[in-house]
Protein 1
Amino acid sequence: MIGAEGPATERCSRAGCTAAAVWAVHWRNPRIHSEDRVKTWLACDEHVEYLRDYLATRDFPVAVTAVGVTVERVAG
Ligand SMILES: [Zn+2]
């Protein structure tokens, strides 16, 4: 297990944002991804809502967890 306080190399996925990611936004596009496919964006505190809403408004299944958490699948 790697220490939780390791080098902060995980950055927010929001364009132009260089803040350290503290959230992971897991999602998939039901039209092109099978049910066991999970895409993950990383987000800082400021942008986690933006990214989740961006996906939710497209009717994509979304699950938000702390960064580093692995999600097997995102419920549709
Ligand atoms: Zn950000």
Protein 2
Amino acid sequence: MTLLLPSVLFRWVGGALVGLAALILHHGLDEHRRRRRRPAFLYVCESCGLVYEDDRNVPLSACRRCGMLNAALQR
Ligand SMILES: [Zn+2]
């Protein structure tokens, strides 16, 4: 039993490292995608006040919370 302990520990540490690496990789890809994305248009919902972004170039965007159509803020 005592001989098995190091291999069990190895598996735990290995699993944790793989999980950590996957997290870092995922975060890195996310960051990359975020930077590549074109600047989004900013909207403030006139009905519920939700502030949200929409990167489609549309004159009116539907609020994600209540569905109200809002015009983009001027930047
Ligand atoms: Zn709304």
